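Q: what sequence does this backbone want?
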């Protein structure tokens, strides 16, 4: 495709093959639609894939993040540390427990939490850290767990972007010391439309998370309508309706089988971007930070050197849009959101986040993107930069 043959390349298209469709149809015909055998199968396969003892299917990563904190006993009067360079769900779920979110700036190489700035935000009220594996980079987990051990804090990793990311050779979610929450939202590396998974090696947290995610009903109550199930149950906690159900799990089981194939396509696209853009001085390309031994390439985030351009980031996005290319920005820092104004966050306290936010653009990257489309994006990015460099 040449520059002149304008086409629409959306920011995201799902990758659903006939195999997923067949599995969903088989599940529809199975007579069991709610949480049931497919959910259990997906949980077992997912736990095995990442190398965790327990995996609990949820209807979103948001649910998994919320339940993680509740299962760890976080609540009113507590403080929980995370970063402003994340989606609202990370902080909303902290607030929903009754705790106060405390934001720490990102470090400038990876966009993940700056581990050197965590300790200065720890108070007597601090109970947990929610590090976000941003874009597919890994946070410095050894340092984070070292700090958590020193101050007796719980760690709930937000791994929305990090399915397939490796930290020092280990998959995110492998032998987790706290909890790790994954998202299977439509745009994610593994997609069930909406969905999420909480993984942990902690038996107590796993048990509580299972119960809390299904109304707080006693163990195995999901099975009450099956042969051999019982109608008797107790409500052990005031819980939530956060569980995964079998149609989601049907998609998840097949997507998990295809994860390597889809990942290879993501890697190939990242490679084409790298090769096609590396000589452009006005663009900083994403690089896996030192301990990220495998980037999940959930997002391909470029940073514009706007000081060398006659256009700003928003104008760059508009120009790509005019040429039929969908992009996104991950993220608008949380301290700009009106819902959090009562926390009095000050942008000046987050210089690295501020610097990133003005310059970042996420280019389209997904397994159903064909090479022609990637090349089209590269050519247009190059052309816009050339036309607007100072
Ligand atoms: C960093 C981060 N955390 C949490 C979420 C919430 O995920 P979900 O939509 O599965 O609830 C998102 C959504 O994209 C996200 O980007």
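A:
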């Amino acid at each position: 495709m040449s520059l002149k043959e304008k086409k629409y390349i959306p920011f995201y298209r799902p990758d659903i093959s006939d195999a997923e469709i067949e599995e969903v149809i088989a599940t529809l015909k199975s007579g069991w639609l709610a949480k049931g055998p497919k959910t259990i199968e997906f949980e077992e396969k997912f736990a095995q894939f990442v190398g965790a003892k327990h995996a609990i299917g949820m209807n979103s990563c948001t649910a998994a993040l919320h339940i993680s904190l509740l299962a760890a006993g976080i609540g009113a009067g507590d403080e929980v540390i995370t970063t402003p360079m994340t989606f609202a769900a990370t902080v909303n779920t902290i607030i929903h427990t009754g705790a106060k979110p405390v934001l720490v700036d990102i470090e400038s190489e990876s966009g993940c939490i700056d581990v050197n700035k965590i300790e200065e935000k720890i108070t007597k009220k601090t109970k947990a850290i929610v590090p976000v594996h941003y874009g597919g980079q890994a946070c410095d987990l050894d340092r984070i767990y070292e700090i958590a051990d020193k101050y007796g804090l719980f760690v709930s990793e937000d791994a929305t972007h990090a399915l397939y990311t490796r930290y020092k050779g280990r998959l995110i979610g492998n032998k987790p010391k706290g909890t790790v929450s994954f998202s299977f939202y439509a745009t994610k590396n593994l997609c069930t439309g909406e969905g999420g998974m909480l993984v942990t090696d902690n038996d107590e947290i796993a048990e509580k998370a299972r119960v809390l995610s299904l109304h707080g009903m006693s163990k195995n109550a999901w099975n009450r309508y099956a042969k051999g199930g019982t109608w008797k149950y107790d409500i052990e906690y005031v819980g939530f309706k956060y569980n995964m159900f079998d149609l989601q799990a049907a998609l998840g089981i097949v997507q998990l089988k295809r994860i390597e194939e889809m990942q290879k396509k993501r890697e190939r696209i990242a490679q084409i971007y790298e090769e096609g853009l590396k000589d452009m001085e006005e663009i900083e390309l994403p690089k896996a930070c030192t301990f990220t031994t495998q980037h999940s390439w959930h997002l391909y985030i470029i940073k514009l050197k706007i000081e060398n351009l006659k256009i700003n980031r928003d104008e760059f996005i508009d120009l790509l849009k005019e040429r039929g290319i969908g992009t996104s920005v991950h993220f608008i820092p949380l301290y700009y959101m009106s819902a959090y104004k009562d926390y009095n966050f000050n942008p000046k306290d987050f210089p690295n986040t501020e610097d990133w936010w003005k310059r970042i653009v996420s280019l389209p990257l997904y397994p159903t993107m064909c090479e022609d489309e990637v090349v089209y994006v590269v050519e247009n990015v190059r052309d816009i930069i050339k036309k607007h460099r100072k």
